[in-house]
Amino acid sequence: MTRRHTPPLLALGTLTALTLLTTPAPAQAAPKTPTTYYVDCRAGNDNNPGTTPTQPLRTLAKASTRTYRPGDRILFKRGTTCPGTFAPRGSGTPGRPISAGAYGSGSGTGPGGRPHLEGNGARAAVLLDNVQQWELHDLDVSNTGPATTTARRAGILVRLTDFGTGHHYAVRDVDVHDVNGADFKDPDPSGGILFAVRGAATPTGFDDVTVTGSTVSHVDRTGIGTSSTWGRRPQYPDGPGTAFVPITALRIENNRVTDAGGDGIVIQNADGALAEHNTVDGFNMRSGGYNAGLWAWNSDHVRYQYNEVAHGHGTRDSMAFDIDGGNNGNVYQYNYSHDNEGGFLLVCNGGGMTSADNVVRHNISVDDRNRSAPYGIVSVVCGASTRTQVYDNTIVTNQPGTAMVSDNGPGNVTFRNNVFVSGAAGGAPFSDPRNTYDHNLYRGVGTVPARDHSPVTADPAFTAPAPAGPYDVQLRPESPALRAGTPIADGVVRDWFGNPVASPPNIGAYQGAGVAYGTGLRAS
Fold it and tell me: pTM score > 0.90 for this model?
């Protein structure tokens, strides 16, 4: 007997099958229309619905009680001051973030009439806690309380605790200033704009974070920073937590940090971050800890480019840039450093950590210094790193009493195609018997490293005899550095100035054909 195959649907019975075939699927509920909420901390009323500019809410406390939905907006009246903490609830969804910003016009409190949110010594003036898909813009934020050595304070704090992965956070065009928190660095530090991961039960991290077009000034202790309690991995076996959950898709761009008590911009626990076109002017101004202008910790494949770092204070670090513990595959390129008391660069791998394959290239350092042994303008200290490459940079100083490069033990750094120049009385000597040198130009540095078998020891013929800015270190046509470098196959095709990389390359950051004396452009 032949067995017929009965389709499963028909096996339910003719009536049931026909019903299933002809009944339309339930319609998907349409997304709820987003709502805009208005807050006027001068003339509003918390009994108002807050959904029109004519019936706004009044306080941050009331604005923080609502659970916001995807696409909602919370707008604060320009020219007003709102005391307390804005700590909203609710998360957006992909393509429908929740946002907080400004409405109205005026030139009152805050630059450009931005609404001013003042934390009055709270943990933060703006606190996004265990939420995601949020955007903040056009806000003026401060958090000043009584002087303290114990209270953590922040302007804007985005915090996840045992949350899992939080997605999409954007901070743009905000002004954060006057935050006087205690000198806490990790975990959960004080500072201006902070992203902090806490907890130990659920692996947690951030994805898709941008901080753009913002200013941070007079804050303690970190200007812009990230931190995490999920940092343990083979490269950091003693790190916090039980696993490594890096921040991904982190972008810090076009910001200005001034008068930071500690670090300027610090990226921790990240993979593939980008920090570019930022200015850090004045850092390590009040902290008792170790701080740098722009640096990473336990982070891989971070790229720092087109940044300016200046006026780092003190010699307990205070370097512009830092290759630190657990840094792997990071690149500093096209940056400008000047007038830092701690110098231009620190290479300092943490004990028991792995820091390898980092590159510092096509940067310019002018009048940096470090007069505290065992440091110098470039300091190689702490634990050894692996395959650190420093090349095609120009380092020039007129500051007396500083070493040019100092190494107190680690080694493992290769310096190639760099210009090292001191115009100070007594020069800027090398205190480095360990690292590798090749095809560098030396002037006013005392004894040239004996390990450089192809040195150039001559005046580089800058376009200014005493460089005061990056354009002053361009080379004149008679410079001995022109075409005197050794090729490096790294795929880089342009220099700091936009010139094509010469072949063979010049020594130093300038790769052009030569600029006539007195005709070089000056930085504006």
Answer: yes
